[in-house]
Each structure stands twice: as structure tokens, then as C-alpha cells.
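Figure-free illustration: sequence to structure, shown twice.
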Amino acid sequence: MKQKMTERHINSVHKLRTEQLKTSTREFKARGSALKRCPECLLATDKCICNVFEPVDSNIAVCMLMYHAEYYKPSNTGQLICQMVEDNYAFRWERTKLDQELALLLKNDAYYPIIVFPHDSVDEVRQIDRVPDTEQLSGRKPLLIFLDGTWRQAKKMFIKSPYLDDIPVLELKDFTKGAYQLRESYHEHHLSTVEVAYELFKQNGEVNLGKQLEKLFVQFRTGYKAYKR
């Protein structure tokens, strides 16, 4: 039986998509655009996952920094993270300017920003292996920043966002086999954003959140592939 979603919960990816549609001068046409979709999760209406799980209360916040048009794509999994994490944010990435709300979020003393990204090209001084605990952070909440797009786009966002240059970087450990299979070459290790997220949550003390997010992803993947052409 479906559970009723908490009324006050806001999925920031859905909110961002709505805001971007208001100013868009061109309609985004995804593959399978003729399919009747839920306006929120973008799956076929009979496969909607919007009311499947309650968001999970946790000690982690998330911020999706999204490449242009990523929030329009029915295959996007960043929306699943914001559906399950109570404290969530989403912003469109722009190369030439910084969203002022994002700037304020990064400077907010209530949070400790951490970028989720491979350590291959990151200065050693910025590399961390685990999310620091609450005591280490003096009560600040970890804010995990996900660069949401293809691997090439994520790398571009990482390199060309100077406001991220001093933020510590967390890498997913010992997990390289993805089950996404909805896009070709989505990531160099074939992991979707949500797969990285739920494994990171499990590795960093948020096991229940990780497991619930994984279950949501499995249902999302099944629903998406049912009408994939």
C-alpha cells in the first residue's frame, strides 16, 4: 500500500524544474515525450512513484547542482535523492554566474558543505574519506553537494566553479558496479547520481536512508524501463 507523502516536504528538483519552465523559451522534448507522464516524477502516470515512500529524517542535507536541462529529463535520478532527504536543495549550474541563494547556502553556518566527486584530480588537502561526525563539525549539518549530469558535465562543473574550490571532496569507496542502465555512458563507472548517493549514505552512518533510497531507485528504474523505447 502506498504511504502518503509528508505534505510539507518539498522536492527541490521538482521545484527547480517548475521555476525553469516559467522562463524557458523552448520546450524540452525528451525521448518518449508523447507518453502521458506524472508532472512531478516524470514517469508514466501508472508508474508514478511520488507517494511511494515518506522522506527520511536524517543528519545529512543534500544540494543538487544540476547541469542545464538535467532537471527536465525523465531519466534523472537526482530527484529521487531530494524525494527521500528531508533537507534538500537544487540549483541550476551556470558557468558565468553564481546563484545568490546557492552562495548564501554555502556560507550558512548551519551547514558543512562537502562535494561528492572522485579524488583522481583533487588536491590531497581537500580529500576526505568519510563525512565528519556531528562532534567534529561542532553541530553543523553535513551538506552533500552532488554535481548532477553526465560524467563529462559533472567534471566541467567541478573545474569551472571557483566557488567550490575550497570545499572538501568526498569520494565513494569500493563500489563501481552500477545498475542504472537507463542511459549510455552516464558515468565513467556506470553509476547514476542516486547510486552514488545511497551507497555514500550507507557508508556514512545513514543506513536507513540509504536502503530506502535504494528501494525507491529500484522502483523508479522498473517504472522507467517499462515504457523505454
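We now fold a second protein in the same way, so the two outputs can be compared directly.
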Amino acid sequence: MRRAIAGLPAGMVEAAVRWRSIAATVVGGEVPDQAVVERELVLPLATEPAWPGPSAPMAVPGGWVQADLIDDDRDTFDRLRRTHPEAGPETLAELAQQLRLPVLPYRTRPWPAPPAATSGPARHDGNLAGRTVIDLTSLWAGPLATRLLAEAGAEVIKIDPACRPDGFRVWPRLYDALNGAKQVIDLDLRVGDHRAAFESLVGEADLLVSSLSRRVLPNLGYDHAALRTLQPRLGTLDIVGFPVGCPEQDWLAYGTGVHAISGRGMVDGRPRPTPVAYPDGLAGHAGFVRALELLGTGDHGEVSLIESLAAAPSTARTTPR
């Protein structure tokens, strides 16, 4: 684990500690030891000895891409490369994203840091006992944010449908580390009686956290306005790859791809892969703080993996993207 921590770009641990410090101020708790925060930044490696790690950068004409593909997608991507053999990193990534393949280019220019927050979330009285959170997240960033809410006293209800389970279920120790403190319910939001059960839960909730792509909940009839008709005080938080307004806002990306596109994945003109998808861990901490701000407000917010990374301190140059 120490080797993985040493392999992270500069400033990652400091950023996570800062977010945990903000959260501790909000809920009146203590800032965890740095060792705890470091473990959360490399959680798959810390919990699963056989964790395979990310795929290596792929060389293409003029640069490299990060292709985080499941087996079912590899043939599609191979056909794409055969059809466009001269495609460079940017073109190949754009073509792959049109097919909903999580392929991202390695870029040299840093992603611009988001504006600094002018104020933090309001302080809560004591812990979050009595608060209810609906968890529509999977894998790492979203489940970490909601696990931290559970640790702060909230009741977290994770919707994990059998028809499309959380991908970390195949790693039981990792899944339990992120979700063991939650109530897990199997609901398929396309099915009538399951929808009724979901709407009943929303009617009693203070916050809904989602890591689904932006179009999924609206397509199911549960955009933010519709959810608030079920519960006016419901805050909603989306954890996404990229913020609204950028060309990549609808791109499919995992933490390793975000590392590639952020500019921090290139060192001395060569790609430096990450030992673990740490942007997920950063976004989980940032999402925890944002969730505290949104609880019971009826407001909507987003946390993106790329901005969580871009906001971290760095010694890298800051040429505009």
C-alpha cells in the first residue's frame, strides 16, 4: 500500500485530508488519521490482495489513450481501431465515446481548477442520526461518499438491483468495506411495484446520491424536479466524470481515464499510469462534503471526478487547457 501511495501524483493525500477536515467541522467529529485517508485513496489495493490494477496506457499514433474496457467491449474497440488506424488520441477517444466505450486521451495540459468555494456547508447539530439517504451509486466514488454519511450517523439505503448489480460485488471485501454499513435493497426502477417502493423511500428521504449517467434517471421519469414532487426537502447529488458545460460532459470515464485526461498522467512527455483509480477516492471525499451541504435542502448539486482531481494542490505547470 505504501508503494501505491508513493505512486500517486503530488497533493492527492493533502486534498483528501482537507475535505475530511471540512466534513469534521460540519458534523462536529474528529479528522481521521492520515493513514485512514490514505487507505481510502487506495482502497481496492488495501482490501483485495488480488486486485488487478488498471490497464496500461495504449500507444496510438501521436500519443496514448487509457482504455478501461470490459471483455465484452474489446472486440468493438479493436474493430474501431482497425477502421481508423491513423486516429490519434483525441479522435480515437471521441469515436470510442460515441460507442459508449470508456476510452480517454492522455493530455499534457492540466485541467483547469474549479473556482474555490466561497463558503462551506452549514454545521449540523451533532451527528446525522435521523437523516435518510438513498444511494444510487456503484463502484467506488459514490459508495465511499455514502459510506462516510453512514459513519456520520445517517441511515443509508443502497439500491443495488440484481438485474444490474454494483460491479464491485465480485470483490466481496471491497464491496463490504464500502457498503457494509448500509441497508441494501434490490429494486429495478423499470418495474411498477419496485418503482412504488422506491417512491415511498424517496418520500421519507433527505438526500439522494446518484452516480448514474445524467440521462438515466430522467429517462426513468425521475429527474430532479420529479423527485422533489415526491419529497420537497430532498437534496440530490450527482457524482459524475465531468462537469456540465465542458465538451466531455457526457463521456463515460473511470478514475484511471480521468487521471489520463487531467494532465497529471503525463510526466516528461510520457504517460505515467496510476497504481489505482485514486480520482474515485478523491471524489468520494469531495462528495461527502457536498452531500452534507445538500441534506434536506431541496437543492441539487454535482461533484465530478475531474474537478475533484483538478482542485488538489500540485507542483505541475498550470497552462490553460
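Summary for the second example: The first strand starts at residue 58 and ends at 60.
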